[in-house]
């Protein structure tokens, strides 16, 4: 085993050892921990763009992702049922107000990046929390789909991958690897569904497998979106929070896309 692989395994294990207890615990501890992850991921995006996380725009963007992530109506009684969206709108208004305070140097087009960053991250992590509030099984189901997609795509792509999937975005990804990832996700989901049927939300077994294929495609698309962002700004990783693995966004880019689509189809 190479030193680089050893580092990836060791620090990947440490990251899981931190994340899993919060996931198992659920409730407020998991929600606050997820909010922290969202803020870090937003800070990574802000830094890519050349903004300082401790700038007014950076802090507002991180605050935006936090209030969008958390189910604020559970903490603040007077808020409506969609309190986090209302609070996020207020933060967006504050970000737009920064164009007035910096009228000669900060335009509407420039403020769009921190707004988009906070929404991109916040909406994904918010649905992670919604999934966990529904049940632990829903989160594990999504995790297994994403992990199976990643592993299957890597193994199949490295063995028989010939045709490039999107070479300008991610040169190493292949069509064969992408298909292998989808097949792997479906196989793992089949096993999961045979053991635990609570995640089906009333769908038939066959329909669930079609949805899993869709979730696998969404996971790959989420990874490609982040790759495109990193390529645009000329960085290899979104951050250095997890040595050998990159930043928080590098680890959650696929899940950010999967959870909202799972919610769209009523799985939680």
UniProtKB/TrEMBL annotation:
Indicate the secretion signal residues.
none
Keyword Transferase found: yes
Query: Is Protein biosynthesis given among the entry's keywords?
Result: no
Look up the record and report any one GO term of the cellular component aspect: plasma membrane
Catalytic reaction equation(s) = a 1,2-diacyl-sn-glycero-3-phosphate + CTP + H(+) = a CDP-1,2-diacyl-sn-glycerol + diphosphate
> What is the membrane topology here?
Multi-pass membrane protein
Question: A Gene Ontology biological process annotation?
Answer: CDP-diacylglycerol biosynthetic process
Keyword line: Cell membrane, Lipid biosynthesis, Lipid metabolism, Membrane, Nucleotidyltransferase, Phospholipid biosynthesis, Phospholipid metabolism, Transferase, Transmembrane, Transmembrane helix
Q: What is its EC number?
A: 2.7.7.41
Give the superkingdom in one word: Bacteria
Q: Which family does it belong to?
A: Belongs to the CDS family.
UniProt protein name? Phosphatidate cytidylyltransferase
The record lists the organism as Streptococcus zhangguiae
Print the organism lineage: Bacteria, Bacillati, Bacillota, Bacilli, Lactobacillales
């Amino acid at each position: 085993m190479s030193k680089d692989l050893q580092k990836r395994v060791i620090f990947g294990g440490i990251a899981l050892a931190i994340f899993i207890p919060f996931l198992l615990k659920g409730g407020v501890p998991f929600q606050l921990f997820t909010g922290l992850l969202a803020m870090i991921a937003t800070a990574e995006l802000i830094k890519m763009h050349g903004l300082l996380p401790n700038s007014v725009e950076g802090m507002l963007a991180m605050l935006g992702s936090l209030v969008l992530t958390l189910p604020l109506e559970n903490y603040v009684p007077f808020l409506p049922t969609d309190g986090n969206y209302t609070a996020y709108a207020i933060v967006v208004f504050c970000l737009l107000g920064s164009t007035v305070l910096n009228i000669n140097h900060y335009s509407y087009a420039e403020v769009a990046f921190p707004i988009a960053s906070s929404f991109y991250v916040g909406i994904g992590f918010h649905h992670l929390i919604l999934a966990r509030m529904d049940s632990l099984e829903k989160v594990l189901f999504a995790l297994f789909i994403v992990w199976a997609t990643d592993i299957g795509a890597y193994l199949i792509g490295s063995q028989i991958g010939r045709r490039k999937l999107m070479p300008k975005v991610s040169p190493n990804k292949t069509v064969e690897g992408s298909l292998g990832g989808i097949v792997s996700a479906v196989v793992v989901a089949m096993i999961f569904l045979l053991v635990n049927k609570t995640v089906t939300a009333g769908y038939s077994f066959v329909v669930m497998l079609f949805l899993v294929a869709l979730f696998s495609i969404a996971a790959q698309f989420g990874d490609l979106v982040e790759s495109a962002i990193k390529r645009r700004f000329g960085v290899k990783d979104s951050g250095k929070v997890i040595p050998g693995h990159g930043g928080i966004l590098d680890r959650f880019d696929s899940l950010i896309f999967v959870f909202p689509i799972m919610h769209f189809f009523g799985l939680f």
